[in-house]
């Protein structure tokens, strides 16, 4: 399995019905008619009585459970999963091998209410990824019952992360991040944790050619309320995938492609027998830091202050009339020497104001700024 082949396949199988960040049940339902191989069923209903779908495909002995949009506003991996389903519809050798060796059960949207409202939480305002012990929500109950019934050999917990993350304390954005969750307070390196680490290390090795120094690793602080930590504690290798940011890719279409590759590579490593003796390469992946803003305006005069400052702007993702908008919000005004902007604007010592001539303030929502009489858009 190599990058050239996977990139070529992605172009052939990319699901045209799914685009952008706002992906709901109604979007994936439009894709079901194109899929002949999966067994598609409803496992039950969300708080607001939306169906939670499951797709089962393959007849192999290796059982892998995958779920996406546990957080409703994290949709990139959902798109990548449907691209994988389209691949499985073909007679390509990769498809045939996976379906012969594996049985995959996939929940593409675990939190359809959150997806509809574009929120992290469910309709009861519960973070489903902190409900692994209480199992208080219908969505949590459905995932847990599926886990019990299916008895997976591996779990892929698919998420999306904010644009703020860097791969280490560097100017390298974390386009993808991974974690082999801890399963106890001591964060012991158990066999199943090492298996998850090995898979992640091999995904990282493949993708370094595509996004050099662009992969991060999350801190493995233990929290048994998290689903990944809980499933890991059951002795099943569990991988956390996080889809992050790629340059000028706020719709996360490039990251979708990378997630497609990462999911398939993870399955490929499992099929080819996980060699846990290789787990130490996992620790070569730099730990995530928070070094980015969406925009930084450098070297600005501000509100009569003598010293030049930097102005950090972060997009607030807001659903307006059924469309996702990226609203620029002033996040910080100070010298940001160890921070980086996905876009940087040089003020060259000029005063930066709103289009109405007002001074900037933290918390302002602002689409344009005036720098040296030039009107500059802050929209994505």
Automatic annotation (TrEMBL):
One Pfam family name is Peptidase_M14
Q: Which residues form the Peptidase M14 domain?
A: 1-267
Give the record's family classification.
Belongs to the peptidase M14 family.
* Official protein name in the record: Peptidase M14
Which organism's genome codes for this protein? Winogradskyella marina
């Amino acid at each position: 399995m190599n990058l050239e082949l996977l990139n070529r396949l992605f172009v052939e199988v990319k699901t045209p019905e799914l685009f952008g960040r706002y992906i709901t049940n109604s979007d994936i339902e439009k894709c079901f008619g194109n899929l002949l191989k999966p067994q598609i069923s409803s496992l039950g209903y969300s708080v607001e009585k939306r169906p939670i779908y499951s797709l089962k495909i393959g007849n192999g002995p290796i059982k892998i459970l995958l779920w996406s949009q546990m957080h409703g506003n994290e949709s990139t991996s959902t798109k990548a999963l449907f691209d994988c389903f389209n691949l499985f519809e073909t007679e390509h050798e990769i498809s045939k091998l996976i379906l012969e060796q594996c049985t995959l059960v996939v929940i593409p949207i675990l939190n359809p209410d959150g997806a509809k409202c574009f929120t992290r939480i469910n309709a009861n305002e519960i973070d489903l990824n902190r409900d692994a012990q209480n199992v208080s929500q219908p969505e949590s109950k459905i995932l847990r019952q599926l886990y019990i019934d299916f008895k997976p050999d591996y779990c892929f917990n698919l998420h999306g992360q904010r644009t703020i993350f860097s791969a280490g304390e560097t100017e390298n954005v974390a386009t993808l991040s991974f974690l082999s969750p801890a399963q106890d307070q001591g964060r012991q390196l158990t066999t199943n944790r090492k298996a998850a680490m090995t898979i992640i290390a091999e995904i990282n090795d493949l993708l370094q050619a595509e996004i050099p120094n662009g992969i991060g690793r999350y801190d493995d602080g233990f929290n048994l309320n998290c689903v990944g930590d809980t499933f890991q504690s059951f002795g099943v290798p569990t991988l956390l995938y996080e889809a992050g940011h790629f340059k000028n890719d706020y719709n996360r279409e490039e990251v979708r492609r990378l997630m497609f590759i990462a999911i398939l590579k993870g399955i490929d490593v499992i099929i080819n027998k996980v060699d846990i003796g290789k787990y130490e390469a996992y620790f070569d992946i730099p730990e995530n830091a928070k070094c980015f803003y969406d925009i930084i305006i450098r070297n600005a005069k501000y509100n009569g202050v003598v010293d030049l400052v930097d102005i950090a702007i972060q997009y607030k993702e807001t659903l307006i009339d059924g469309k996702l908008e990226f609203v620029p919000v002033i996040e910080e005004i100070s010298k940001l020497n160890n921070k980086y902007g996905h876009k940087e604007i040089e003020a060259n010592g000029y005063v930066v104001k709103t289009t109405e001539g007002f001074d900037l303030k933290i918390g302002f929502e602002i689409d344009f700024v005036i720098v040296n009489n030039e009107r500059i858009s802050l929209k994505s």
